[in-house]
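Justification of computing resources. Each target in the renewal requires a structure prediction run like the one illustrated here; the chain below, 157 residues long, is used simply to show the kind of job we budget for.
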Amino acid sequence: MSFVGNYTVKTDAKNRIAIPSSFRKLLAKSEESGFVLQKDIYQNCLVLYPLSAWNAQLEHLRKSLNPYNPKHKRFKSQFLRDTAEVSLDSGGRILLPKRLMDLVSINKEIEISGADTTIEIWNKSEYDNYGLESEEFASLTEEILGGSNEIPINNES
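Resulting structure tokens:
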């Protein structure tokens, strides 16, 4: 399951947002039933994980951490701190918890962005100002992917 595309939506009076229909169709095909919403570690946005993607994150976390190491325990507590379980209602909306909205300054206008296995939820004005200039993105692309001999494009018909 890979979420692609950007959508501008507005919160309603109860702080709910409609998940775009293209994303809901993907979720229905995969029979996802729940989600975890988390404040992103690096960006000022929220990340919506389908439960299967969240569980994969937790499994990786569990394998990487020693539960008897105080630093690891503190990291895990912080990692899980700004999260909430959410679900789609019958109208295809999720409720954004106020405390998480406040963490990333989300108000009425929101940008929902597909981010492969997750969905990012941004304050619209912040999303519009986030990102790289074309030349910076090209340079970063070369730095990260330029040394690879593999072509990551699937040309199967």
